[in-house]
Amino acid sequence: MSDKEVRPLSPREPRSDAVANRRRIVEAARAELSSANGATDDLRLHRVAKAAGIGQGTLYRHFPTREHLLAEVYRQELTELVDAVGPLLAEHPPLRALECWLDHLLAYARVKRGVMAAIEASTWEDLYSAQHHRLDDALDELLARGRAAGEVREGIDATDVVLLLGALSRIPGPEWDTRAPTVVAMVVEGLRATPARGPG
After folding, report:
1. Residues in domain HTH tetR-type (predicted)?
2. Torsion on CA atoms 140, 126, 166, 71, rounded to nearest 10
3. What is the pLDDT of residues 83-105, one digit of tens each?
């Protein structure tokens, strides 16, 4: 290439402070949603900006609307849930790893409820359809490891478990903290392999 030829511009990397600001905004919004049991009516962007230690102008540069912010919160929550599978399986026997993962899923479900309530149905459908297979894949991996270890019943797949966990969506917000763990405990017991009975 001669000195007179123009080199193509490389994509501009985000500034490190911009990346940090975006991360703080998402974390602050997740904390707000969690403390409000997913009630997005109480999610105020000025409070999120204050909690993140940034100005509202900076928040709007990253997320022009509350819907944009909530969609990113949902994606982050799902990513952390999916990424937890490997470490949990490395640390625990399969059924215990699944139980711990379902505890993590409660935090995800709380955020999901808030996002579903706050964004338009068509937008939610697009967001969910693009992401939900990741949840199914993570759950199938946990179930497969449990079956291989003889800890999880045969004949159960991710769709079965997701249908059971659909009960979480019907728990009223004020009762979430007491009823949601009970639902998960019942699901785990239902997944547990029954020891083979001996003769007699």
Report:
1. 19-81
2. 100
3. 999 999 999 999 999 999 999 99
Task: For 146-169, give the secondary structure using H, E and C.
Answer: HHHCCCECCCCCHHHHHHHHHHHH
| Residue the block writes with tokens 């139980």 | 99
CA distance between the termini of the chain: 86
Residue 10 lies in a domain: no
pTM, two decimals, is 0.75
Positive or negative CA dihedral for 97, 99, 100, 105?
Answer: positive
- Count of the separate structural domains present in the chain: 1
Query: Using only C-alpha atoms, what is the Rg of the chain?
Result: 21
Q: What is the CATH number of the domain that holds 127?
A: 1.10.357.10
